[in-house]
Amino acid sequence: MTPATEESALSNKDRNYRFGTRLVQMGRSQTDAQSFVNPPLERGSSVLFPSVAARDAVRERPFDQVLTYGLKGGATHFHLEDAIAEIEGGSRCQLVSTGLSAVTTALFAFVRGGGHCLIPDSVYGPTRTFMATIGSECGMSATYYPPAIDEAGLRGLVQDNTTVIYAESPGSHTMEVQDVPMLARVAGSVNAKLLMDNTWGLSFFRPFDHGVDCSIQAGTKYIGGHSDLLLGAITTSSDDDWQRLRSTAVTLGQYASPDDCWLALRGLRTLRVRMAEHMRAGIEVAQFLRGRPEVAEVLHPALPGAPGHALWKRDFTGACSLFSVSLAPDYDQADMVAFIDALQLFGIGASWGGFESLVLPTTGAITRNHAREHPAGPTFRLHVGLEDTGDLIADLTAGLGVLNNHRARRA
Predict the structure, then answer these.
(1) Alpha carbon distance 271, 205 (integer Å)
(2) Is 190 left (phi over 0), alpha (psi -120 to 50) or beta?
(3) Is 197:168 a contact under the CB 8 Å cutoff?
(4) What's 133's DSSP letter?
(5) Where does the chain hold its CATH 3.40.640.10 domain(s)?
(6) With b meaning 16 or more CB within 10 Å and e meaning fewer, what string describes 193-230?
(7) Whether the bond into 170 is cis, omega within 30 of 0
(8) What is the dihedral sign for C-alpha 399, 405, 410, 411?
(9) How far apart are CA 95 and CA 80, in angstroms?
(10) Checking CA distances to 129, which of 65, 261, 397, 408 falls within 20 to 30 Å?
(11) Residue 233 φ/ψ, nearest 5 degrees
């Protein structure tokens, strides 16, 4: 629902355009007058009305994209909301300040006090922290299930007050791919909502085609694409769910910076070509590491034989460049730290999805209620950026040399 004074550059009749064309066209205003290619950045708090009657009329439309107050969004927000809803294939989108805010706002909306949710054991760590602290204090409860659980096992965990089944596929750090259609089947049968963190699968996984009710994106990652913004987005499959989500977000005072929204709109235009290169480069680097004797396992769902590959092949059309690597058990944490510190092209830092390659030790960051099925060797996570893969592989090769030297010195 774009503002009444503008018309989306991508009208309903154009929806048969291919993805790359839609990315260029969506979230832009189109008028008969001359205009710039990109919609202008609009900032503001107070909205002025010509009369009390005009203000009252707008206040009667809480779910329309109209100007009421800065907290509830402006044209820059509306353009990005429309674009992300189009990418995800959903009904409406709500923007919030960060990816974690998207997670917590969605949980507040659909779990609420006294509600119970089922969460995969491989979930993003701060989601677990939220449920153990503020969520618990607000009356929410959670049961953590193995990400590879079967349907009978999942049904056995459902409680009378289960209102949400949560998914994150692939899982954080350990990259387990979940059977999302099965999760949707169970959720639907017990009148629960299926919420999914789809950040890894942006543009490669169509959540609502697989039964998801609410898709969560950290726009900080690939949507922005340049490591210079913080943003979260929540898209729903229905207007009813969006209205509940919208009411929750407004009540919580959730807001996304219009500057970050404008940067995200700019990032979206190159999403298709960036993701294609990220996928190609990520798989090339993953295959190189898989062939190294120092590596016990490469946790990348797109690699044949990797954990979750069959589900990935069934449900996804591609892969991003985030994956994890488990070293052989005869290497210890200090060896891995020496390897990471030796890398020149992989920055040591959190987040991912930008143009730069990143590395992060994850062994100490993995919390599990259930035993892991992966090797017990030290684990690190890579995000492969847009550098030349030959240079990245040379950097990793040199780092592995440092790894071996460090182990030899302590032997």
Answers:
(1) 14
(2) alpha
(3) yes
(4) I
(5) 7-268
(6) bbbbbbbbbbbbbbbbebbbbbbbbbbbbbbbbebebb
(7) yes
(8) positive
(9) 8
(10) 261
(11) -140, 140
Q: Please give the class, per CATH, of domain 7-268.
A: alpha beta
Domain with CATH 3.90.1150.10 in the chain: 271-410
Q: Are the CB atoms for 107 and 140 separated by under 8 Å?
A: yes
Residue length of the chain: 411
pTM for this structure?
0.92
Compute the distance between CA of residue 389 and CA of residue 368 in angstroms, rounded to an integer.
Answer: 33
Q: Specify the CATH architecture of the domain 271-410.
A: Alpha-Beta Complex (3.90)
CA 68/CA 290 separation, integer angstroms: 54
- Determine the Cα angle at 296 with ends 338 and 176, to 5°: 105
Q: Which two tokens stand for residue 74?
A: 């402006």
Cα separation, 53 vs 233, in Å, equals 33
Residue 366: CB partners within 8 Å, gap ≥ 6? 173, 174, 372, 379
> From the CB of residue 91, how many other CB atoms can be counted at a distance below 10 Å?
15
Tens place of pLDDT for every residue, the chain, 411 residues?
A: 344 334 444 444 456 888 888 888 877 766 556 677 888 899 999 999 999 999 999 999 999 999 999 999 999 999 999 999 999 999 999 999 999 999 999 999 999 889 999 999 999 999 999 999 999 999 999 999 999 999 999 999 999 999 999 999 999 889 999 999 999 999 999 999 999 999 999 999 999 999 999 999 999 999 999 999 999 999 999 999 999 999 999 999 999 999 999 999 999 999 999 999 999 999 999 999 999 999 999 999 999 999 999 999 999 999 999 999 999 999 999 999 999 999 999 999 999 999 999 999 986 556 666 666 666 689 999 999 999 999 999 999 999 999 999 999 987
Structure tokens at 119: 């969460």
Which of 180, 44, 31, 205 minimizes the C-alpha distance to 120? 180
Strands 92-96 and 232-236, by their bridges, are antiparallel
With contact defined as beta carbons under 8 Å apart, do 296 and 334 qualify? no
